[in-house]
Protein backbone atom coordinates (compact mmCIF):
# COMPACT_ATOMS: atom_id res chain seq x y z
CA UNK A 1 0.00 0.00 0.00
CA UNK A 2 1.65 3.19 -1.19
CA UNK A 3 -0.98 5.56 0.19
CA UNK A 4 1.25 6.69 3.10
CA UNK A 5 4.04 7.60 0.64
CA UNK A 6 1.67 9.47 -1.66
CA UNK A 7 0.09 11.23 1.31
CA UNK A 8 3.51 12.20 2.63
CA UNK A 9 4.63 13.67 -0.69
CA UNK A 10 1.32 15.51 -1.05
CA UNK A 11 1.53 16.92 2.47
CA UNK A 12 5.13 18.05 2.00
CA UNK A 13 4.23 19.71 -1.28
CA UNK A 14 1.20 21.45 0.26
CA UNK A 15 3.19 22.77 3.21
CA UNK A 16 5.97 24.08 1.00
CA UNK A 17 3.45 25.74 -1.34
CA UNK A 18 2.03 27.66 1.60
CA UNK A 19 5.49 28.92 2.59
CA UNK A 20 6.86 29.27 -0.96
CA UNK A 21 6.90 33.05 -1.09
CA UNK A 22 8.96 33.38 2.09
CA UNK A 23 11.33 30.48 1.44
CA UNK A 24 11.97 31.46 -2.19
CA UNK A 25 12.45 35.13 -1.24
CA UNK A 26 15.00 34.22 1.44
CA UNK A 27 16.90 31.94 -0.94
CA UNK A 28 16.84 34.48 -3.78
CA UNK A 29 18.05 37.29 -1.51
CA UNK A 30 20.97 35.15 -0.33
CA UNK A 31 21.74 34.43 -3.98
CA UNK A 32 21.87 38.15 -4.74
CA UNK A 33 23.97 39.08 -1.71
CA UNK A 34 26.45 36.22 -1.30
CA UNK A 35 28.87 35.47 -4.16
CA UNK A 36 29.84 32.03 -2.86
CA UNK A 37 26.19 30.99 -2.53
CA UNK A 38 25.49 32.40 -5.98
CA UNK A 39 28.35 30.41 -7.50
CA UNK A 40 27.12 27.22 -5.81
CA UNK A 41 23.59 27.82 -7.07
CA UNK A 42 24.81 28.46 -10.61
CA UNK A 43 26.61 25.11 -10.54
CA UNK A 44 23.63 23.36 -8.98
CA UNK A 45 21.28 24.77 -11.58
CA UNK A 46 23.21 22.93 -14.30
CA UNK A 47 23.36 19.55 -12.56
CA UNK A 48 19.94 18.46 -13.79
CA UNK A 49 19.83 20.15 -17.18
CA UNK A 50 20.19 16.86 -19.07
CA UNK A 51 23.65 17.58 -20.46
CA UNK A 52 25.31 16.16 -17.35
CA UNK A 53 23.12 13.06 -17.45
CA UNK A 54 23.65 12.34 -21.15
CA UNK A 55 27.34 13.00 -20.62
CA UNK A 56 27.45 10.38 -17.89
CA UNK A 57 25.59 7.95 -20.14
CA UNK A 58 28.14 8.54 -22.88
CA UNK A 59 31.00 8.01 -20.41
CA UNK A 60 29.49 4.72 -19.23
CA UNK A 61 29.02 3.59 -22.82
CA UNK A 62 32.55 4.49 -23.90
CA UNK A 63 34.05 2.73 -20.89
CA UNK A 64 31.78 -0.28 -21.34
CA UNK A 65 32.62 -0.82 -24.98
CA UNK A 66 36.31 -0.05 -24.49
CA UNK A 67 36.73 -2.55 -21.66
CA UNK A 68 33.95 -5.00 -22.56
CA UNK A 69 32.10 -4.09 -19.34
CA UNK A 70 28.46 -5.19 -19.62
CA UNK A 71 27.45 -3.44 -16.42
CA UNK A 72 28.72 -0.09 -17.66
CA UNK A 73 26.90 -0.57 -20.98
CA UNK A 74 23.71 -1.49 -19.14
CA UNK A 75 24.05 1.58 -16.91
CA UNK A 76 24.49 3.79 -19.98
CA UNK A 77 21.38 2.34 -21.61
CA UNK A 78 19.31 2.64 -18.44
CA UNK A 79 20.46 6.23 -17.90
CA UNK A 80 19.18 7.27 -21.32
CA UNK A 81 15.99 5.28 -20.78
CA UNK A 82 15.27 6.87 -17.41
CA UNK A 83 15.93 10.39 -18.69
CA UNK A 84 13.43 9.92 -21.50
CA UNK A 85 10.80 8.08 -19.45
CA UNK A 86 10.93 10.33 -16.39
CA UNK A 87 11.24 13.44 -18.54
CA UNK A 88 8.14 12.50 -20.49
CA UNK A 89 6.01 12.16 -17.36
CA UNK A 90 7.38 15.41 -15.91
CA UNK A 91 6.58 17.27 -19.12
CA UNK A 92 3.04 15.88 -19.08
CA UNK A 93 2.56 17.14 -15.52
CA UNK A 94 3.99 20.55 -16.40
CA UNK A 95 1.58 20.85 -19.32
CA UNK A 96 -1.30 19.97 -16.97
CA UNK A 97 -0.46 22.14 -13.95
CA UNK A 98 0.79 25.26 -15.73
CA UNK A 99 2.57 26.88 -12.78
CA UNK A 100 4.57 30.09 -13.06
CA UNK A 101 8.27 30.18 -12.29
CA UNK A 102 9.29 32.54 -9.45
CA UNK A 103 11.19 35.02 -11.60
CA UNK A 104 7.99 36.13 -13.39
CA UNK A 105 5.33 35.18 -10.83
CA UNK A 106 2.17 37.29 -10.80
CA UNK A 107 1.04 35.95 -7.41
CA UNK A 108 3.02 35.35 -4.18
CA UNK A 109 3.41 31.63 -4.88
CA UNK A 110 3.04 31.63 -8.66
CA UNK A 111 -0.21 31.32 -10.58
CA UNK A 112 -1.44 27.86 -11.53
CA UNK A 113 -3.14 27.65 -14.94
CA UNK A 114 -4.37 24.08 -15.21
CA UNK A 115 -4.60 22.66 -18.73
CA UNK A 116 -3.26 25.84 -20.35
CA UNK A 117 -3.53 26.66 -24.02
CA UNK A 118 -0.69 24.66 -25.53
CA UNK A 119 0.21 27.25 -28.15
CA UNK A 120 0.59 29.87 -25.44
CA UNK A 121 2.59 27.35 -23.41
CA UNK A 122 5.08 26.97 -26.25
CA UNK A 123 5.37 30.74 -26.67
CA UNK A 124 5.74 31.53 -22.95
CA UNK A 125 7.16 28.38 -21.33
CA UNK A 126 8.27 29.93 -17.96
CA UNK A 127 4.66 30.95 -17.32
CA UNK A 128 3.63 27.30 -17.13
CA UNK A 129 6.49 24.86 -16.51
CA UNK A 130 7.55 25.19 -12.86
CA UNK A 131 5.79 22.16 -11.39
CA UNK A 132 7.25 19.64 -10.89
CA UNK A 133 10.99 20.20 -11.28
CA UNK A 134 12.31 18.27 -14.25
CA UNK A 135 15.90 19.14 -13.34
CA UNK A 136 15.75 17.43 -9.94
CA UNK A 137 13.72 14.51 -11.32
CA UNK A 138 16.27 13.85 -14.07
CA UNK A 139 19.21 14.23 -11.71
CA UNK A 140 17.69 11.93 -9.08
CA UNK A 141 16.70 9.33 -11.66
CA UNK A 142 20.24 9.21 -13.04
CA UNK A 143 21.76 8.99 -9.57
CA UNK A 144 19.38 6.20 -8.59
CA UNK A 145 20.29 4.16 -11.68
CA UNK A 146 23.98 4.50 -10.78
CA UNK A 147 23.39 3.50 -7.15
CA UNK A 148 21.31 0.47 -8.14
CA UNK A 149 23.86 -0.73 -10.70
CA UNK A 150 26.87 -0.21 -8.41
CA UNK A 151 25.58 -1.11 -4.93
CA UNK A 152 29.09 -1.89 -3.71
CA UNK A 153 30.27 1.67 -4.43
CA UNK A 154 29.30 3.24 -1.11
CA UNK A 155 30.74 6.63 -2.11
CA UNK A 156 28.16 7.20 -4.87
CA UNK A 157 25.26 8.04 -2.51
CA UNK A 158 27.52 10.07 -0.21
CA UNK A 159 28.54 12.23 -3.15
CA UNK A 160 25.28 12.06 -5.07
CA UNK A 161 22.76 13.06 -2.42
CA UNK A 162 24.61 16.26 -1.41
CA UNK A 163 24.82 17.13 -5.12
CA UNK A 164 21.04 16.70 -5.32
CA UNK A 165 20.69 19.19 -2.44
CA UNK A 166 22.96 21.60 -4.31
CA UNK A 167 20.86 21.12 -7.45
CA UNK A 168 17.59 21.83 -5.61
CA UNK A 169 19.05 24.90 -3.90
CA UNK A 170 20.41 26.16 -7.20
CA UNK A 171 17.03 25.81 -8.90
CA UNK A 172 15.37 27.91 -6.20
CA UNK A 173 18.23 30.38 -5.82
CA UNK A 174 18.22 31.17 -9.54
CA UNK A 175 14.41 31.61 -9.35
CA UNK A 176 13.64 28.85 -11.82
CA UNK A 177 11.68 26.83 -9.27
CA UNK A 178 9.86 27.10 -5.96
CA UNK A 179 10.78 24.78 -3.11
CA UNK A 180 7.42 23.04 -3.50
CA UNK A 181 8.37 21.96 -7.02
CA UNK A 182 11.10 19.75 -5.58
CA UNK A 183 9.41 16.91 -3.56
CA UNK A 184 7.42 15.43 -6.44
CA UNK A 185 10.45 15.77 -8.72
CA UNK A 186 12.53 13.79 -6.22
CA UNK A 187 9.85 11.11 -5.87
CA UNK A 188 9.46 10.73 -9.64
CA UNK A 189 13.20 10.57 -10.21
CA UNK A 190 13.77 8.00 -7.50
CA UNK A 191 10.80 5.88 -8.59
CA UNK A 192 11.73 5.84 -12.27
CA UNK A 193 15.36 5.14 -11.39
CA UNK A 194 14.38 2.08 -9.38
CA UNK A 195 11.97 0.83 -12.03
CA UNK A 196 14.40 1.19 -14.91
CA UNK A 197 17.28 -0.35 -12.95
CA UNK A 198 15.12 -3.38 -12.10
CA UNK A 199 13.12 -4.14 -15.27
CA UNK A 200 12.19 -7.59 -13.94
CA UNK A 201 11.04 -6.28 -10.56
CA UNK A 202 12.71 -4.88 -7.49
CA UNK A 203 15.37 -6.90 -5.70
CA UNK A 204 13.65 -9.62 -3.64
CA UNK A 205 13.74 -9.21 0.12
CA UNK A 206 14.46 -11.87 2.69
CA UNK A 207 11.63 -13.92 4.13
CA UNK A 208 9.85 -12.10 6.91
CA UNK A 209 10.83 -8.62 5.70
CA UNK A 210 8.34 -6.14 4.34
CA UNK A 211 8.25 -6.00 0.54
CA UNK A 212 7.41 -2.30 0.47
CA UNK A 213 8.77 0.76 2.22
CA UNK A 214 6.70 3.74 3.19
CA UNK A 215 9.46 5.79 4.81
CA UNK A 216 10.30 9.21 3.46
CA UNK A 217 13.81 10.35 4.31
CA UNK A 218 17.36 9.09 4.49
CA UNK A 219 18.42 5.76 5.94
CA UNK A 220 21.74 3.90 5.99
CA UNK A 221 22.31 0.69 4.07
CA UNK A 222 24.27 -2.28 5.39
CA UNK A 223 27.35 -1.21 3.45
CA UNK A 224 27.30 2.15 5.21
CA UNK A 225 26.01 4.16 2.25
CA UNK A 226 23.07 6.55 2.67
CA UNK A 227 19.85 5.71 0.88
CA UNK A 228 16.67 7.68 0.28
CA UNK A 229 14.01 5.64 2.06
CA UNK A 230 11.29 6.09 -0.51
CA UNK A 231 10.13 3.09 -2.54
CA UNK A 232 7.31 3.32 -5.02
CA UNK A 233 6.30 0.03 -6.66
CA UNK A 234 3.81 0.09 -9.51
Q: Widest sheet: strand order?
A: 1-2
Q: What is the structural class? A: mainly alpha
Radius of gyration: 18 Å
Spell out the helices and strands N to C: HHHHHHHHHEE
Give the arrangement of secondary structure elements.
Blueprint: H1 3-18, H2 20-33, H3 35-47, H4 51-66, H5 70-97, H6 118-123, H7 134-149, H8 155-173, H9 182-197, E1 218-220, E2 226-228
Antiparallel strand pairs: 1-2
Helix pairs in contact: 1-9, 2-3, 3-8, 4-5, 5-7, 5-9, 7-8, 7-9
Name some characteristics of this structure.
234 residues; mainly alpha; two-stranded antiparallel sheet; globular
Describe, in short, the structure shown:
Strand 1 and strand 2 form a beta hairpin. This protein is 62% helix and 3% strand. It is built from nine helices and two strands, in the order αααααααααββ.
